[in-house]
Design brief:
Length: 330
């Protein structure tokens, strides 16, 4: 597989391979010397046409820890700000023979578009519009693997509650695909304007494995009841002019994830958040900084997961096998 455009394109074995490779790179991050020569002589271009802190920084660190040459380009730095098309910009970059183009773009499908046209460069989707954010879902799964490592079923047969603005969330979509592959039950929780009922339809996700796996709840208590994992989504303040909720205060009153609500309806749940957080709006500080929170672990695992993805796409290798000398050079 030359590209990573979304979790939707993966089967369960491919998903497991990414997660297993990431474990090796988590270990690399604990060493005093965190740099490995795995991608020496390779070039990675990070083209971020939307603002980003966590994803952009972690891709940059990931590339550098693999010893690749890393170039960062933002929207204001590229010729698209002068009217050049996305495709012409990408072709210009490809003429410089990079090995990987990591792209974030406000338009859904931008990464797929680039992958169709760039013949010699692997494309990684770092978030495209309201479509997908695959590396975020991968790092979320790695974080859950670490937490549930002593569980007989691992991270299968869990109940996952995703709360908030699902309508606009590429993180939610990638996680739904991932957890359906893993055999988990997914509850999408929020006001009907932000969690449309059709999201529970098999047709919405286009695969039989989603049958009876995805359920929609507008009632917060019923939606998170018995959940093993509660994921808070960022309330996208930039969209509030479209009036998806009557007011932010009303949203907070009904859907903010607080310790009192978790203790009542999901007492054993751990909490995830892809960031950035609006504290006091979608999640309380007590929860974000509390013993349930795996949010810092998510950030820590972001670099390892992106190292694993870069390595896999450039070399088609399993890193742990390569370290022990069991994999041939491609």
């Amino acid at each position: 597989m030359r590209h990573l455009l979304g979790i939707e394109q993966l089967n369960r074995e491919e998903l497991a391979n990414y997660l297993n490779n990431a474990k090796s790179f988590v270990e690399v991050g604990t060493r005093d010397l965190k740099k490995v020569p795995a991608l020496r002589g390779k070039t990675v271009i990070n083209m971020f046409m939307e603002p980003s802190t966590r994803t952009r920084a972690s891709f940059e660190i990931a590339g550098k820890r693999l010893s690749a040459d890393v170039i960062n380009i933002g929207g204001s730095d590229s010729s698209t700000s002068k009217g050049e098309t996305l495709l012409d910009t990408a072709r210009t970059l490809q003429a410089m023979t990079p090995d990987v183009l990591v792209v974030r773009h406000k338009q859904s499908g931008a990464a797929h578009f680039l992958a169709r046209h760039l013949k010699r460069t692997s494309v990684i989707n770092a978030g495209d519009g309201m479509h997908e954010h695959p590396t975020q879902a991968l790092l979320d799964c790695v974080t859950l693997q670490q937490h549930f490592r002593d569980r007989n079923d691992g991270i299968s047969k869990l109940r996952i509650a995703i709360v908030g603005d699902v309508r606009h969330s590429r993180v939610a979509r990638s996680n739904v695909y991932a957890h359906a592959l893993l055999g988990n039950e997914v509850h999408l929780v929020g006001p009907p304007t932000l969690v449309p009922p059709e999201l529970s339809s098999i047709k919405c996700f286009g695969a039989k494995q989603f049958a009876n796996k995805v359920k929609v709840f507008s009632d917060f208590a019923k939606g998170i009841e018995g959940a093993d994992v509660v994921m808070a989504l960022r309330m996208q303040l930039e969209r509030q002019e479209d009036h998806f909720v009557p007011s932010l205060q009303e949203y907070t009153d009904a859907y903010c994830i607080t310790e009192k609500r978790l203790s009542t309806y999901a007492p054993n749940a751990v909490v995830l958040h892809p960031g950035p957080m609006n504290r006091g709006l979608e999640i309380s500080s007590e929860v974000a900084d509390g013993k349930r929170s795996l949010i810092e672990n998510q950030v820590n695992n972001g670099v390892a997961v992106r190292m694993a993805v870069l390595f896999a796409l450039v070399t088609s290798h399993n890193y742990s096998s390569l370290e022990t000398g069991h994999t041939k050079e491609s």
